[in-house]
Specification:
mainly alpha; Arp2/3 complex 21 kDa subunit ARPC3; two-stranded antiparallel sheet; 2 strands; about 210 residues; globular; about 5% strand
């Protein structure tokens, strides 16, 4: 497998052992079942917009000067805060399109990638109303969830490479963590700004009742 391919949060074909791949599809199926439960038409436009945002954000690669690879935004914090438990729908469709259209990621790892990115997104969506009710202001709340969701995905990716890799990917898994430090910081700041903006102009997108 090409060296840089393992430095992305999207796991590629051939990197992970079959039992982990099967477990990934089972986990992703469970997440999608939860996401589809009592899904109404009013959610469809919102899911479509977040799918597009996730697809575009994850498709823009930024070349790093220090490490021989590029990184990209994940935006799972944003998807999770707005969609909550329905986040895996946008993430799964986005990952599939990225593989089919851009050859980014892999078809055997779609399930694992959906879990790695989707689980932190669901957690961010669950934590958002709790932390908001606790009185945390919009900007630091968004920063915290953006950093947490992105960092959790990077951490899960690290663990999967470490524990389920076809080869010994320990060194490369460590490089994944280093390479994505700036991404985690940027995502935190971005979500902080977005949450503060939406709270003022479109609070219903965050599940906040206006007035």
């Amino acid at each position: 497998m090409p060296y840089p391919a393992l430095l992305a949060v999207h796991l590629s074909d051939g990197a992970i052992t079959p039992p982990w791949l099967v477990g990934g599809f089972i986990g992703a199926a469970g997440l999608l079942l939860i996401a589809c439960w009592r899904l109404t038409e009013e959610w469809v436009p919102r899911i479509g917009v977040l799918t597009a945002a996730f697809f575009v954000g994850s498709s823009i690669h930024i070349k790093l000067a220090i490490l021989p690879t590029s990184v990209h935004l994940i935006l799972n914090g944003l998807v999770g805060v707005i969609l909550g438990r329905r986040a895996p729908l946008a993430i799964s469709v986005g990952l599939t399109l990225q593989y089919l259209l851009l050859a980014h990621g892999g078809y055997t790892t779609l399930g694992l990638n959906a879990c790695i990115i989707g689980l932190p997104a669901i957690l961010a969506g669950w934590l958002f109303p709790l932390l908001r009710r606790a009185g945390l202001p919009a900007f630091p709340l968004g920063c915290l969830l953006g950093v947490g969701a992105c960092g959790a995905s990077v951490g899960l990716n690290f663990l999967v490479l470490l524990l389920g890799g076809e080869d010994d990917w320990e060194t490369l898994a460590q490089l994944v963590l280093i390479a994505h430090i700036p991404v985690v910081i940027v995502e935190g700041l971005m979500l902080g700004v977005i949450v503060r903006y939406l709270e003022k102009v479109k609070p219903e997108m965050l599940g906040i009742r206006s007035g």
